[in-house]
């Protein structure tokens, strides 16, 4: 499927997406919160870590498979939850999900996907998928989302905890842009029986208003997680952890995995970069909980650095979204290119298996 798209560097993927998309949509994806310090720090801090490779170790047979929240994946990465994908391509999540399924790469469906989790499951067959919950202000709707995920073959629930409200997004304010306002990202709400019972929805404007009034929940606490733990047998992944104490609390409250993430620099500007947050969290909870990582990953060498620092696997955010500007073929090309790059980077690091990567192969430069 991806054969007709030639090689592109991460910078080119971004540039092509910029050419394809209108200004509001592109800047919504590309930008970060506030002065974008954290957005930049995610990328810059990764560059501060250098790989110190070993040689003469027979790297002729490379294995980059990895288990990701119970799924045996051919690569140590999955596609992160990204809402509103129809702002990038009319096929939105259906195109990304088909691409992920074609390579057996886990796909995470956002609560604010433009297609419903049922529609996405249908195009994915038996391929691995997870559901990401933005816990609405109404617990009955939250539970209904979880039940639908269970019934439609989603094998874990990612609860995103860094978004009690939207970050201070200056670019979007300037552009007066939020996809929900244009009727994007309604797929799951408009297919939800509990929401439809509670809301009066006769036209799109009503739907937007009704969803907007339930979308955010600033009252969430760890007790909600405990409650969810009692409601479902699916693994729970807490996404949006950068403080080691929160990582410990996630373990205490029954999480099976965490995602070390600052939401791609889109929430609290000035917060620690994801890669700088990782080592202390690894020190405190490695072995007690699976550790996923995202933020600034653009290249195979970034993947190697995060894995060496103790992440078990990686989520790709903007990188695959830029590929989506070229539809399913674009996302497939991003996946296959990155897989190849990870294989080469692993071998040139002097290792043959993902799980053999240790912190000794990376060093932080201080200048
Ligand atoms: C356009 C866009 C939409 C996003 N939507 C969601 C979402 O619906 N749920 C969520 O948990 N995270 C969301 N994220 C955050 C990603 O899951 C991920 O944490 C972040 O993109 C990682 O950083 P990176 O883009 O630098 O790889 C979104 C990110 C972007 C860029
Ligand atoms: C609670 C819903 C917020 C949706 C925003 C989507 C997202 O995570 C992002 O833009 O970042």
Automatic annotation (TrEMBL):
Domain of life of the organism in this record? Bacteria
Q: Which InterPro entries match?
A: Aldolase_TIM, Alpha-hydoxy_acid_DH_FMN, FMN-dep_DH, FMN_HAD, FMN_hydac_DH_AS
- Which Enzyme Commission number(s) are on file for it? 1.1.3.15
Pfam families from the UniProt entry: FMN_dh
The residues listed in the UniProt record as binding glyoxylate, with positions renumbered to this chain, are: 28, 132, 134, 169, 263, 266
Q: Which reaction does it catalyse?
A: a (2S)-2-hydroxycarboxylate + O2 = a 2-oxocarboxylate + H2O2; 2-hydroxyoctadecanoate + O2 = 2-oxooctadecanoate + H2O2; 2-hydroxyoctanoate + O2 = 2-oxooctanoate + H2O2; (S)-lactate + O2 = pyruvate + H2O2
Extract the GO molecular function terms from the UniProt entry.
(S)-2-hydroxy-acid oxidase activity; FMN binding; monooxygenase activity
Q: Which residues form a coiled coil?
A: none
In which residues is FMN bound? 81-83, 110, 160, 239, 261, 294-298, 317-318
The active site of this protein is located at 263
Oxidoreductase listed as a keyword: yes
Domain FMN hydroxy acid dehydrogenase: residue ranges:
2-367
* Listed cofactors: FMN
Arranged from A to Z, the UniProt key words for this protein are: Flavoprotein, FMN, Monooxygenase, Oxidoreductase
Q: What's its top-level EC category? A: oxidoreductase
The UniProt entry's sequence similarity note says:
Belongs to the FMN-dependent alpha-hydroxy acid dehydrogenase family.
Write the protein's name: L-lactate oxidase
**Species whose genome carries this gene:** Halalkalibacter krulwichiae
């Amino acid at each position: 499927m991806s054969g007709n798209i030639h090689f592109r560097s991460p910078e080119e993927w971004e540039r092509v997406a910029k050419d394809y998309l209108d200004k509001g949509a592109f800047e919504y994806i590309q930008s970060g919160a506030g002065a974008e310090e954290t957005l930049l720090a995610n990328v810059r801090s990764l560059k501060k870590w250098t790989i110190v490779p070993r040689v003469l170790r027979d790297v002729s047979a490379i294995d980059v498979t990895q288990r990701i929240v119970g799924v045996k994946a051919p690569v140590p990465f999955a596609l992160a939850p990204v809402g509103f994908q129809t702002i990038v391509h009319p096929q939105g999540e259906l195109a990304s999900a088909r691409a992920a399924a074609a390579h057996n790469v886990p796909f995470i469906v956002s609560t604010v996907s433009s297609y419903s989790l049922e529609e996405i499951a249908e195009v994915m067959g038996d391929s691995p998928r997870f559901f990401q919950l933005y816990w609405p202000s109404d617990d009955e709707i939250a539970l209904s989302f979880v039940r639908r995920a269970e019934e439609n073959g989603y094998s874990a629930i990612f609860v995103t905890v860094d978004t009690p409200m939207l970050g201070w997004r200056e670019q979007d304010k300037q552009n007066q842009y939020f996809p929900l306002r244009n009727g994007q990202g309604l797929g799951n709400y408009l297919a939800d029986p509990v929401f439809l019972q509670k809301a009066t929805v006769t036209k799109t404007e009503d739907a937007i208003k009704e969803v907007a009034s339930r979308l955010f929940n600033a009252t969430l606490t760890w007790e909600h997680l405990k409650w969810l733990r009692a409601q479902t047998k699916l693994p729970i992944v807490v996404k949006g952890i950068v403080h080691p104490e929160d990582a410990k609390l996630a373990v205490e409250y029954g999480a099976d995995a965490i995602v070390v993430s600052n939401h791609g620099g889109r929430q609290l500007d000035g917060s620690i970069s994801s890669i700088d947050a990782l080592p202390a969290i690894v020190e405190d909870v490695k072995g007690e909980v699976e550790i996923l990582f995202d933020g600034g990953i653009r290249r195979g060498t970034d993947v190697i650095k995060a894995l060496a620092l103790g992440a078990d696997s990686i989520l790709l955010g903007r990188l695959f979204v830029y590929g989506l500007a070229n539809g399913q073929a674009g996302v497939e090309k991003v996946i296959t290119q990155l897989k190849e790059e990870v294989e080469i980077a692993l071998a040139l690091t002097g290792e043959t298996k993902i799980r053999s990567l240790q912190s000794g192969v990376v060093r932080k430069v201080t200048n």
